[in-house]
Amino acid sequence: VIMGLFRKRDLAVLVLVVISLYLSYVDRPALNYVIEPAWFIDQREAHESQSFDAKLVPPIITDLEGDGVNEIVMITKDLKLKVFSADVPAGQSQEVYHPEEVYTIELPETHNLGRVPVALKVGYTAPYSPTDARTQSIVVVYEDWTVECYDSTLQLLWSKEVGHNTFEIDHFIKFFRINSASVYIAPLQLHSEASTGTVIVGASMTRRSALSGVTTESEEVVMRSLREGTHPQAEALAKLSHFSVFALDSLTGRVLWKHDGMEVRPEQYSRSLPQHAY
Asked: What is the top-level taxon of the source organism (predicted)?
């Protein structure tokens, strides 16, 4: 009798568990997610007028002015720096809308060699305040190591040719270009004479032909001599391929600190990866 009671009880519990599971799945709302476009920026006209073949940096969506409204910061194919409002414009009821253009400027001398943008970053240069809204700064880095800083309305704050004196960029820009770049903007004061914000830029360069992935027999000879340190440009390659870092004052663009590749020797390049040749 006792075993029979236990069996009936176990069966009842099992039935209740099955019913509970069934009801939980039946009444449960569907967890189906669909990613659909919200806005669209037409760059076909800009694409027809572009005169360079470099890849553009990706756009940034952020609240530039601290008003709770997101903006879209991007460099278009006709090499203009633009800010769009990510809010739905008044009077537009389409599912996919065209953002309203708020600010736009043409980047200076962008069609010259070495003036193609390779990095775009936004960030705060003022410390957080619970009472005052902060605006973000916009930093653009070009392949010739020129760094430009704009405010949230695209007013140019400063322009700094970071690597021109260090690496003799004007001479080597025909043979080298930036391979990788990174930018960090933060409300950091590195020393008492600096402002409350710092822009940190890091990049390494490579030979232009090395990026194409196509090497001829003569090119292989040149690359071998560069690695062995016997080519006239071997020293330049060792220094430029080093991942160099510059810390700039966010208010003036003055170089506060740097870690460059000026002490890197060609034999170090031949023994290790350039970015590891410290």
From this structure: Eukaryota
Any residues with CB less than 8 A from the CB of 204 and at least 6 apart, and which?
178, 179, 180, 240, 241, 242, 243, 244, 274, 275
The domain that contains 146 carries what CATH number? 2.40.128.630
**Helix H or strand E encompassing 209:** helix 208-212
- Give the chain's domain count: 1
- Which residues constitute the domain of residue 26? 2-276
Whether the CB-CB separation of 277 and 267 falls below 8 Å is answered with: no
Which residues, given as ranges, of the chain have pLDDT below 70? 1-6, 26-31, 45-54, 91-94, 109-113, 164-171, 209-238, 261-278
Q: Are 263 and 244 in contact (CB under 8 A)?
A: no
* Model pLDDT, residue 96: 81
